[in-house]
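Next up, sample data.

:::
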Amino acid sequence: MADQPPDDDDALLTIKQAARLLNVSEVSLRRWTDSGRLACLRIGARRERRFRRGDLLAFPEQQGVRVQLAGSDQHNSRASQTADAAAPVQAHIGGVAIDYGSHLCSFYETDLGRAKLAVPFLADGLAAGDICFFIASGKVRRQVLKKLEKQCPDLKQAKDSGQLKLLAGKPSGQEMLDYFEAEFITATRTGNARLRVLGDMAWFLEKELGLEELNSFERAYNHSLGHRFPVVSLCQYDARVFSGVGILGALKSHEDTFRYPLSRFMGLDKQKVA
């Protein structure tokens, strides 16, 4: 039968086969992938969805969705043990609950303002078991990690195990996109349901890549990765080094930010508020 799902966990299924396997509608699958809750690949010029069978089998338990696998007994199905209306897991940034599959930007004008969002974002992610990526120049990385270490006694273990991945950025925006795609696919295949990316975007300027390439990278990430995987991505912009044009470009490529109170992403420290 053409639409019968294959048995191999690494096999790639069409959306019709995936819907048959989980006994759900194709509309539900599209909604879950668009929100970043369920990983999928995009194939060909038409960007058709393909699903890894192992990801589909693991999805119900990871996300709290009730489905009955095709050919399974309702009482024996792993997924039938969870509640229908379970809410998707969320991250918190500045006290705001953020859905996974969100690509956000924030701005700061002091080192303290930067740390105000960066440190709890990483600390909460590590505590929740998320795989966390931190991309920044060496100086910024050292400053943030020094504060993060005070909140995370097991920070060295997180780095050694690969739960916290530290990067200075790649030589080009495309290489950075390729890196993220490979890492996200690997992470979701090994059963890690959630990811976090923190990027201090001044690394682009440090590598002399320019605003045009930065804006191109942000738009491509937003459309190809940020909403396709269960990842919360926070791109920080230092108002001391980015021009008004650079700040405007950041806002244009992070429309998810406008779904939340923008004041929470301004990186205000106590001195500025006082």
User: Anything to note?
Assistant: The longest strand covers residues 231-238. Residues 90-273 form a domain with the Rossmann fold fold (CATH 3.40.50.300). The chain is about 45% helix and 20% strand. The first helix runs from residue 15 to 22.
